[in-house]
Specification:
With 216 residues, the chain is of the alpha/beta class. It is built from 8 helices and 7 strands. 32% of the residues are buried.
Length: 216
């Protein structure tokens, strides 16, 4: 595993429960209010993703950087035939597997510790998602290219926008904790998708993010 991935794994192992609480609202009233005000785009990208991966029922999904499984498990709940979530953080995966067992979704869902570049699926997936993934990837093109290679239909991803007030603040805050973070412009994204081999794409600005659906 590269030095970058080692740092990322350590960071997310330490932050797994804290990060998961954003989605579960498992915080105090004031912290939940702050999330709704300043992180509303995280919830909006969730709705964007579920809308743009449709149809879900009977199809297969790969969730890259699945974290604690919020997206993967929802896809399983909505009738996906097969969902695989991969992540480099063992602590994140433990939370995902625990929730999967509690909801008895292990007949259609599984979670594995992998970096996508070293993951070899037995068959292609219909859809691949990477939500909150490219924020932390120094070289995105190999990852996008690999996504293109493992799907039959499309990918849905989110990336943080470059020209926002939050970008320098976030970069400084996470940098002090040993977590590198990266930001993107529209032209940057378009060039990456073209070089990765996608035929067409749509892009939507949602708060501090771009949400993208790219088609094989």
């Amino acid at each position: 595993m590269s030095q970058d991935l080692n740092r990322q794994e350590k960071y997310w192992d330490e932050k797994s429960r804290q990060f998961d609480a954003i989605y579960g609202h498992d915080k105090g009233a004031f912290s939940n209010w702050l999330d709704k005000v300043f992180r509303w785009d995280m919830y909006a990208r969730y709705e964007y993703t579920m809308k743009n991966v449709a149809p879900i029922e009977g199809r297969s999904f790969l969730d890259v950087g699945c974290g604690t499984g919020r997206y993967a498990l929802e896809l399983a709940r909505r009738g996906a035939s097969r969902v695989v979530g991969i992540d480099i953080s063992q602590k994140m995966l433990e939370l995902a597997r625990q929730r999967m067992s509690e909801e008895r979704l292990d007949d259609r869902c599984r979670f594995e510790q992998f970096d996508l570049l070293h993951y070899q699926p037995g068959e292609l997936f219909d859809v691949c998602i990477g939500i909150g993934l490219f924020d932390y990837i120094r070289e995105p093109l190999p990852v996008l290219t690999r996504m293109r290679q493992v799907v039959k239909d499309r990918i849905v991803i989110s990336v943080p926008r470059f020209w926002t007030w939050r970008a320098p603040v976030r970069k400084a805050r996470l940098g002090m904790k040993g977590c590198d973070v990266f930001f993107y412009t529209k032209s940057n994204i378009r060039g990456l998708l073209k070089d990765a081999g996608f035929a067409k794409h749509t892009m939507e600005k949602i708060g501090q993010l771009y949400c993208i659906t790219a088609y094989v």
